Every structure is written in structure tokens, then in C-alpha cells.
Request: fold
Amino acid sequence: MEQQSDQAHPDCKETIQTQAKVEQPGAEVQAKVELEEQVLVGEEVKLPQEAASSEQLGEERKDEAQKMGNVDVMPERNEEHEAPGQSNVGMGEQAMSESVIPESKPEDADPPVAAGSLAFAFLQDERTKAVLRESRTLLILRGLPGSGKTRLATAIKDVYEGACSVISADENVKPENNVSGEGHKALDEAIQARCMSGTPVVVVDDANDTHDRLAWLGQHAELHLYCTLFLEPLTEWSRDPEKLVQKSKQGLEKDKIQALKVVLEATSIPLFFGWFLVSKSQEHMKTMKVDFLKTLVSLDAFKNHASDYGEAEKEVNLEEYFHREGVFHCTTKFCDYGKAEGAKEYAEKQSVKESYGRVSELVLSTLFVTPRTVGARVSLTEDQLQLWPSNTKQDATSDMGMARGSHAHVMLGCAEGVGPVQTGLDLLELVQMEQESQTRDLVQDLELGSLTYYGKGMWALSLREPFLATACFSSYYGHWEEKETEKKKRSKCTVH
Reply:
């Protein structure tokens, strides 16, 4: 409580003070404290007060005022119409009265943030936050009702204040439109508008629990060169139907939430994990690729082997020969939505969970071209190797006597009819040729580095200065073919 003012009127040194305690069964509660002020003409005196009740205090104030004779009696306060901490202005030149009452917590107030529920790299790592503020990232929140998606969206917006836009299904999706298939129209239009405007961080707060929905969001992000992060709240109850019944504001029964949980878990594992180059590094990588291909086709040495890329009489245009869509990335683990060997174990690795959404530098040491693909070899650091899967049947490096991560690469383009997976196989062949010291021709030194021809249309440029590409560790959901019966089953369980 405040101390009596040093400037109090010498004729007024009295203190009105009452105390009261309210007893409840099993507990003792300290009564509220009110500060009363006595006002003399031209001067103000603040005195500590503890009111037993408004009626008792009113009577004491009137008696005291009558004794002093020269002080206006202030009207009694109506606390029912007064907000917590609010004060009324009374009579007199500087008359004022304050009331401090206990804070009341609204019934619908959000609970405190659960410990560890915001332990994401993109919220805590300073390097990551600085990069994402200047890049393009689409954060796709997914999860069950009451799991904490909206709280997470708010935390993201606070961290990236001024560079973030949150698009919520609660504000954009009309339930009555779901039957006609128009439910997400407003939401999708808002997402497209934010991505087209280049907003650095765009957050989509929705259930996002079907493959089709996740694929659409990912493909739309690629169209505007956005990296994507697919996120679930880290709250302890995020998949606990019993607790979610209490926390959800939608009034869902436990059986309904359990059904939604089945749908959510079916989409928990992506097509693949990997490092995705942020927008600035993508632009630099694209420029380097074009310069390399233009230089290569201009060399006589390449023209002598142009038949490897088509008819010898025709001039080869490698920029048109190779096609590329989407964000440049380096795949770590192909999961096939949980069907690939070791996919579930990889997704549950602590290093994978802790690194998800974290930014790091990829060291690109070599550019290579074959009649099938064009790519960049990545030299992984010790920390990055922690995210590289252990050798499996699909990983041929162990059988070839190569170190783990030897075929880490960024796919820069594929020839017509060739799949992206071929890029890694081409790199493995080149690495094997290097190790076996097979015949190769050092063509010449270029501005970017040394160019070598390995035969069969396979070229490699060892960069004089490795290119450091800034990338974010994330995941990808691609096109998903789903039976019509499954679509109907999932649509019955969809809740935003």
C-alpha cells in the first residue's frame, strides 16, 4: 500500500483504516484493499484504506467529513458498473478516488502456455528467425480441436511481428458451405493473396488432416517459391481425446474426436523429409545453374559429345532440355507417407523433431550433368549427418563401400520422362567413377571451377568456391491418389 504523502496538509494527519477478513470453509481469504484519498482545498492527501464494506466505509467518510467541516463529501461508488482498476472522478478541484479490487479471470480466458508446447526451432533459434523474416515460408498448422493450434498461431505471429499473416479457418470457413464443397473457398483465396503479395511468414490455422489438402497447400507454396512447414502443437494433450473433450470449444464428444484422430494419424508422415532452400538461395542456385549450362554447351568438348543428348546435327539447348518445378531441396529420407522402410522410426527420431523448422547452410561442392539429370552434390556436416538415415535396402552406398550421405544432392532438373530419384543414382555413379579412378578427361578450368568429362554424357564441375545455400529442414506432401470410398469416409470426420 502507498505511504502517506510528504506534502499532506499539516492540519490533516488522520487515517481512516478498516480491516476485514472473509472466512470460507477450509480457507481464509484476505479481503480486498481499497485506497481512499482525502482532499483539502488545493491539495491532495492519499491515505491507505482497507474497507470492510462499502456501506460501513461510506458512513465513516461522512462522519469524518463533518468533523473537518471544509471537505466536500464524495458520492458513494457503484462498483457494479466499474471495471477492475477503474477510478471515478469526484467533486472538488482535484478530487479523485481509486479502488483496487481482486482480478477476476474470465471463464473463457486462455490457460497459461503449457511447458514445452512452443519448443520449435523457428520460435527459439535466433539464426532461423532472422532468415525466415527475410524469406518466404508457409506454416501449415494441423491437429485436433483443442490441441493448441490457435495458441501456436498467436505465438508465431508474436515472434514474427510485422512479417507474419495468420489465416484462420474459424474466420474464413463457413460450415454451411462444406456440403457444396465451397467451405474452403474464402480460406484458399486468402492464402493465395498472401503468397502472391510475398508476405514472409504465412500461417494457415486449420485441421489440415487430409492428403489432398496438404498436397494442395504444398503445391501452391511451390508455385510462389515458399518453403512449407507442417506443424502440430506440442501440447501433452494434442492427441488425447479425453482431455480434448474438455479443452475443445466445439463441444465434440470423445467418439468424434477419436475418429478425427484416426484421420490425422493417417497423414502424420510426409512423402519425404529434407532441406529446402530459402527464397534467396533458390534464386542464386537458379542463376548458377543457368550460367553453368550455358557455358557447357558453348564448349567444343561438349559439342563433340552432343550426340549423348540427342541428334548430333541439332544444337542442344540444355536450359530447355531439363525441366524443373518447385523449391530446390536436398532429400534426407523418402517416407512414402509411412510405407517406406524405416519411415516411422525416422519421423520419431529426436534429432529429426528438434531440427524440424531449423535453418542451416548446405555446402554445395560440385555441379553435375548427365543425359538424364542436372544436380548439385552436397557435402554434409557432422550435425547434418545426424539427420541422414542409416543405410537401408534403398540406400546403395553401403553396398558400394561409400560413406553415409555420399549421394546427398539438390536436384536442379530432369530430362523429359525422367523422375527426380534418378538424380541421386546418377550422382552415385559419378562418385563410384571417382573412387575407382576410371578414365576421365579434365576438360579445362572454368571461372567456377574444374570441368571433368566421365563419358556417356556425364560431366562434373568441381566448384572452386563451394556454394553455401541457406536451407530449412522440413517435409513435403505431394499428389495423393485416394479411392472414392476413402474420400467419403474422411469427409464425414472433417472438423475445422
Observations:
- The first strand starts at residue 21 and ends at 24.
- Confidence is low (pLDDT under 50) at residues 1-55, 64-109, 176-180, 482-496.
- The two ends are 49 Å apart (CA to CA).
- Residues 279-298 form the longest helix (20 residues).
